Amino acid sequence: MTRIFRNLTGLAAFLALWEGAVRSGLVQERFLPPPSVVLGQVVGLLGDESFLRDVVASILAWAIALGIAVAIAVPVGLVLGSVPLVRVATRAIVEFLRPIPSVALIPLVILLVGGGPEAKITLAVYAAVWPILYNTIYALDEIDPLLLETARSCGTSRVRTLTDVALPHAAPFIFTGIRLSGAIALILVVSTEFLAGASRGIGNFILEASSGAGRMDLVLAATLIAGLVGFLINDGLERLGKRLFGWSTITADAT
């Protein structure tokens, strides 16, 4: 309760400063509407069926992208982390691809898969893969060699060692990567909707509100709702991590 009270106090102070800056004329209201106006629009949008469909579209794309990223990154990370020859052979291409900003790939992705939901899902997958992949590799680097030697001495196959020894050890690390990728995937989904256009989504709503009449109150309201969605996703994953891996110090440190 103390933590919640402190967070709410900080938020209230920020909103008060924002309101005061606009009402005093330090900032023009047409560029930055006061929170009293923006929060009113937030309430209105939460009751707007069309906007709620945009929210659902963004969340659905986020969930699909994160699921695909996990399905790709975890097996690849297990292979790269456990087979040194493969890791060395692929290091150059992995280090080349990882720093490329996902938004820079928007034109290429649109040409390859079109500008529909596939574009935002593809870019979100690309961005979300890396934290999970590197956390998986790092987890295998940190595993106690005695565990692997014991498994081998018992005649356990390499595949069985990966699934029954390495994967349980790496699970808290992997989940931390999933938490990081969850936020990244949501950012990419909304950004792609805004930059590349989409039939539905929070980013598309922001794009339409900012063009034409330039409704900054709606832009900020939709942005706050996107932030709230991200907060709820992160909080939900954090609670899930504590429930699943409460015994591990890895998830505790990540929080």
Automatic annotation (TrEMBL):
GO terms for biological process: transmembrane transport. It comes from the Bacteria. Its main location: membrane. Coiled coil: none annotated. The chain crosses the membrane at residues 59-84, 96-115, 121-140, 180-198, 218-237. Residues 55-237 form the ABC transmembrane type-1 domain. Keywords: Cell membrane, Membrane, Transmembrane, Transmembrane helix, Transport. It is a multi-pass membrane protein. It is found in: Cell membrane. One of its GO terms (cellular component) is plasma membrane. Belongs to the binding-protein-dependent transport system permease family. This is NitT/TauT family transport system permease protein. It comes from Amycolatopsis marina.
